[in-house]
Design a protein that fits this description.
Length: about 80
């Protein structure tokens, strides 16, 4: 995950290159207070945990899938 930190908060962007299908996709990120708790809540509501939580130098992220099959990113800044 690549991005920038803005002192006003929020997710500023992401650059991803998988090198395989899907070559083009969009993931929207939602800033949360607790990534692990947000995953647990999503799973309890019928979602699926896909990735994470993954700590990186600028914060922690995860991916979940909603019941409709959409991937959603979860983000907590460091």
């Amino acid at each position: 995950m690549g991005g920038s930190i803005d002192p006003r908060g929020g997710v500023q962007g992401q650059i991803t290159s998988l090198g395989h299908e899907p070559h083009q996709y969009t993931i929207f990120y939602v800033q949360v207070d607790d990534v692990a708790a947000a995953i647990e809540q999503a799973v309890g509501l019928g979602g699926t945990a896909l990735v994470g939580p993954i700590p990186i130098p600028i914060g922690t992220f995860a991916w979940i899938k909603d019941p409709g099959g959409n991937t959603i990113g979860l983000w907590k800044p460091a």
